[in-house]
Amino acid sequence: MTSKDRHISREEVEKHNKDGDLWIVVDAKVYDLSRFKDLHPGGASVLLDPEVAGQDATEAFFGLHRYEVLERPQYQRLQIGVIEGEKSILHGRISGAISGVPYAEPTWLTPGYHSPYFSENHRRFHKEVRKFFDTVVYPDAIAREADGKRPSQSVIDAMTAVNMHAMRMGPGKHLQGRILMNGLVKPEEFDYFHELIITQEFARSSLRGYGDGLLGGKVIGLPPVLNFGSDELKARVVPDVLDGKKFICLAISEAHAGSDVMGLQTTAVKSEDGKEWIINGTKKWITNGTQDYNRFADYFTVGCKTEDGFTVILVERGPGVETKQIKTSYSTTAGTAYITFDDARAPIGNTLGEDGGGIFVILSNFNHERWVMCCASARSQRGIVEECLKWTTQRKVFGKPLHSQAVIRAKLAAMISRAESAQHWLENITYQMCNMSYRQQANKLAGQIAFLKSYSTSCGQETARDAVQIFGGRGITSTGMGQYIEHYHRTIAFDALLGGAEDVLRDLGVRQALRAMPKDARL
Predict the structure, then answer these.
(1) 415-435 per-position pLDDT tens digit
(2) Where does the Cytochrome b5 heme-binding domain lie (predicted)?
């Protein structure tokens, strides 16, 4: 029996209630704080309070600290035993587990509920994917979001081992011959619901900057190569990118034009011998575009003005390509870049799609990009709902739980409604994607996905505001109880802007609907 297993009565704990001899109880565990008292970040007086010293301080502790504090080695060493005849019943994050908090999980994962979309294979796949992201990705996400470095290569390599990079591209020929998640799903059986699972579990186990940093540029930059590149180009580029050996980003946005794709000013002209493109211009806010000692993009999927209109070209890092980091409101782990092309050259064979046909390449790519953002947005909102339900249960005001206040319950109701509606709309669109070709998706789902993306991110912004109100000052503090609320509130604008601003997408959805209006329809 270790000292931590020593059985101690509550009467014994009560005797140790003064300066120099200070014990407390948290969740049936006994801690000796006698020497720690003066190191306590909140000061010694908090621990010497008569309602804390020698007492059960569980409620007071969880009013100020997250469970993870108890799991840190320096505080685990303070435990000297357990209360006689009692067991600990509280827990924090459990790797791989399904949360029991209402609405913390989508309906299809909630015990007792059913779904027409998810099969038993999806459920088995989800179990392993959650375990993977909780154990491999989550610790790195916390560390890299804080220090701003590129996601660890060890994580990228672990994802390569189960072909996670390939699966994040969705269903397709690129999966052929690959063993997916240790054989859990066959390449020909992998569908958009499998990809949805990956994206949502990634969002659940990540932070916003790290989420883009862990090769978010590949998710949006590689599909044009897969879908519009020549066989020779794909054979040369795709394997190394899917194996995490080389990196790619999508370079569309400029300081002069964002959602207005046709307003881009970066140009590409053919060399005199017609064998190369010569590219000049700048791109801004490009995810994974930087180059430093950690290295990001080796390839850039670039939108350019050409003689025939608008063309997409794969540019390789080399002479004439310069990148520098842009600091934004989320972590530099995302590798957000400003890119300058100064007579950069690319072989004509690097053209994606037809000369002048770039608008179709980009618009069809937007559908998948925006759908991925919808997946992440819906799941992230659910994580905030879980945080708020936990907090309003353990936080006491006027001697009662915070959720005893009607105004708080109203905010919770709105947050839950938004998360549920976004998820169910998402699942419906995902089902349509599973039953349409890539070209059909581009034709029929552009408006639907635009509406959903605009709706999801506007819901996220409302939820972020409500969550800060619920957490109060903790919701604007980057550490402690409200750290995830502060982070979500600070970075939610990325969801609202990347892939198209909300107003632009709403307008796109309406214009798509008007184009489909039957000419014989009358009131």
Answers:
(1) 999 999 999 999 999 999 999
(2) 5-84
